[in-house]
Design goal:
The protein is of the alpha/beta class and 663 residues long. Among the domains are: 162 residues, no CATH class; 231 residues, no CATH class. The protein is built from 28 helices and 13 strands. The relative contact order is 0.11.
């Protein structure tokens, strides 16, 4: 590892090369006055930005391309966007995101070949990429960097012929997609489409394991050069998601030497990018889990584990071809996407389970004589809400991305082979625990009347101090392997996924139910007051698929017992069980093996996704007081890792308040 390069990037010294271009801010107005089409605007903007980019070669780097222009202007004015939104459903920023293009083909055949099949706009963007690459080549020659200059003679025009060329080729594609205006640009299964180049070079004796690792570390550092310029809810939420392992199209084990080297490179660098996702199954050797556990011990918050046994079955149930399902990758956080063929919008909305319970509590419970009656009301509300969510998403439109379009077989403008929409399902533990409280106290034991419970919730328990600890601490909670709340969670997820069956979206696809929460664990929690499980007003939900923050949980074993009871292959939009372990646990000699066995157990029990975080509450609190001391402190937020001190305080506080386990 080149420590000089790492320290240079971590200390942000490369920011000195960045500059604002004020005149770019008038670009949308100029485009409007000229009456240009969306594709022409995207193309002209890319051409202008690539012309303005300054080729910069850092002293110790081998993988080049660095963003020097800070601002990428919008191509539409505010009033133009308003008119677009009057006719279309616009998802998030309106630009393409969470897609995984055909990197393998582009790197193999070269952009000249891709250009032949591209439309006129794609051809022009590829020409602009060539011009920028040529300027980098000239700069390399000027600085006497002969190896890099030679690499840029071939890529990106022609297909890569070496490991070095393949990595540099990817960097050029990746930077270009961001410069075009896309966001959450994923990496996909890089250990599959880059490995043949590494294998060939190793066989020729061009690299040893050690020298290949050094080049790979340089490549990993490149993901952190511009990541703070990439849009997201918080810094770190940038979508640079890498997938390792899994199975081949034939179902054979795909974990290889490059998979191993990627884990090692990440552990050596301790950077938040790229985010590592590790595909595993019931037959994955314990040694692979141990390699992943080393990264958890380092405090990176990844790898995130996905269980092929559950995921592939779930995707094929939804209509994905087996070979495509076996090739799944991960979007910005955890959602499953299909490289090259998938135009799924996997995070298009979210259902709040606790809000469903809250609505039925206030509207229906006084008319429900039995708990079965109340559950019937909950089911009806879930079905009505998902139907309403689906009906609101009509005439979906994205700003066309000519370069992204060129990198998909068959294009991407109007969608792809798969055009499915995904809904998160938030606050599962809050909802399941609330149902348990209602069933136990109102209907079974009849110790709390419906009116009393409603009044207690509406007053945030201020006048019900004796009732609060009963609901909060003495009523069964999901995560303790107790059937009362756990079976409610099973039922809720079943109704959620079943309510989406048979519904077709505006692009001809289907809807996928999921167990993720994203930022909704804060947003949805603020939409309601207190809840029947003893959660106070203003308290957030648990992250993704996890117990409530305040619940008294027996331990991590009981958590995975609870959270593997649902039929997770039926709610396969993604959303990991998220657990925090006390960092002190990793001081033991056998800690890595314990964690590895724990993860393997979760997978064998039928868990679909898992992410672990090694946290130190005292350290995080000190970082709040003295951020300058903890610039590199990393935590897992929902589907991505971030530097703790760069987060808004509400996200910092949520991480601090999460359950911390020991094994």
């Amino acid at each position: 590892m080149k420590k000089e390069l790492l320290e240079y990037i971590v200390s942000k010294k490369h920011h000195v090369f960045r500059r604002e271009i004020p005149e770019l801010e008038n670009m949308a107005e100029i485009f409007k006055s000229q009456g240009l089409s969306s594709k022409e605007r995207m193309t002209q903007r890319f051409e202008r930005l690539s012309e303005l980019e300054t080729p910069v070669l850092l002293e110790n780097e081998k993988i080049c391309f660095l963003r020097t222009i800070k601002n990428i202007p919008d191509i539409f004015t505010t009033d133009e966007w308003q008119k677009i939104k009057e006719k279309h459903f616009i998802h998030e920023l309106g630009y393409m995101s969470n897609l995984c293009p055909n990197y393998e083909k582009a790197i193999r055949v070269g952009l000249l070949e891709i250009q032949k099949e591209a439309d006129v706009y794609g051809k022009r963007i590829i020409d602009a990429i060539f011009k920028l690459s040529d300027r980098y080549k000239a700069e390399a020659e000027k600085q006497g960097k002969c190896a890099l200059s030679k690499i840029l003679e071939r890529v990106p025009r022609y297909g890569a012929s070496s490991f070095y060329e393949a990595l540099q080729f990817f960097r050029i594609i990746h930077c270009s997609l961001w410069l075009e205006g896309n966001y959450h640009v994923t990496i996909g299964r890089i250990d599959q489409y880059i490995y043949p180049y590494l294998k060939n070079d190793l066989e020729k004796g061009i690299y040893t394991r050690e020298t290949a690792l050094e080049l790979l570390e340089d490549f990993f550092i490149s993901f952190n050069k511009d990541s703070d310029l990439y849009p997201g809810v918080q810094q770190g939420d940038n979508g640079q998601s890498m997938v390792l392992g899994g199975v081949t199209a034939e179902g054979k084990d795909a974990f290889n030497l490059l998979s191993e080297l990627c884990l090692e490179a990440s552990g050596n660098l301790l950077l938040i990018d790229p985010k590592i996702n590790l595909r595993v199954n019931k037959n994955t050797p314990l040694e692979v889990y141990e390699k992943g556990a080393e990264l958890t011990k380092a405090g990176l918050g990844f790898p995130q584990y996905s269980n092929d046994d559950v995921v592939i079955e779930g995707l094929t149930r939804l209509g994905y071809e087996l070979k495509d399902a076996r090739n799944y990758a991960i979007a910005a956080c955890w959602e499953y996407i299909i490289p090259n063929y998938g135009a799924d919008v996997a995070n298009i909305g979210a259902l709040s389970f606790p809000k469903i319970i809250d609505t039925c509590l206030h509207r229906d419970m006084e008319n429900c004589e039995t708990f079965a009656d109340f559950m019937q009301a909950v089911e009806k509300e879930i079905r009505n809400e998902t139907k309403s969510m689906c009906s609101r998403i009509q005439n979906l439109w994205f700003v066309p991305s000519p370069f992204m379009h060129a990198l998909f077989d068959g294009g991407i403008y109007e969608g792809g082979k798969y055009n499915n929409f995904g809904f998160h399902g938030t606050g599962i533990a809050t909802a399941a625990d609330s149902l348990a409280a209602i069933q136990l106290h109102v209907y079974d034991q009849k110790t709390i009347s419906a009116d009393t419970l409603i009044q207690a919730v509406d007053s945030d328990f201020k006048d019900y101090s004796a009732l609060l600890p009963i609901l909060r601490y003495e009523t069964p909670k999901m995560g303790n392997n107790e059937d009362l709340p756990d079976q409610n969670a099973v039922w809720l997820l079943h109704i959620f996924s079943d309510s989406l069956k048979g519904q077709t979206n505006c692009r001809g696809g289907i809807y996928r139910a999921g167990t993720g929460s994203a930022m909704y664990y804060l947003w949805h929690a603020n939409e309601i007051g207190a809840s029947p499980d003893g959660r106070r007003k203003g308290e957030p939900f648990g992250t993704n698929f996890s117990p409530s923050l305040f619940a008294r949980i027996h331990g991590p074993i009981s958590v995975i017992q609870s959270f593997t009871k649902p039929e997770l292959s039926s709610a396969i939009n993604g959303g990991p069980l998220t657990l925090e372990f006390a960092a002190s646990m990793f001081q033991g000699e056998d800690s890595i093996k314990k964690i590895a066995i724990f993860i393997k157990s979760y997978i064998k029990m039928g868990g679909h996704q898992l992410q672990l975080n090694a946290v130190n509450s005292a350290l995080m609190k000190d970082a709040q007081e003295h951020p300058e001391r903890h610039q590199q402190l990393v935590v897992r937020i929902w589907g991505w890792s971030a530097y703790f001190v760069a987060l808004d305080k509400e996200y910092q506080e949520h991480v601090i308040r999460r359950q911390q386990y020991q094994l």
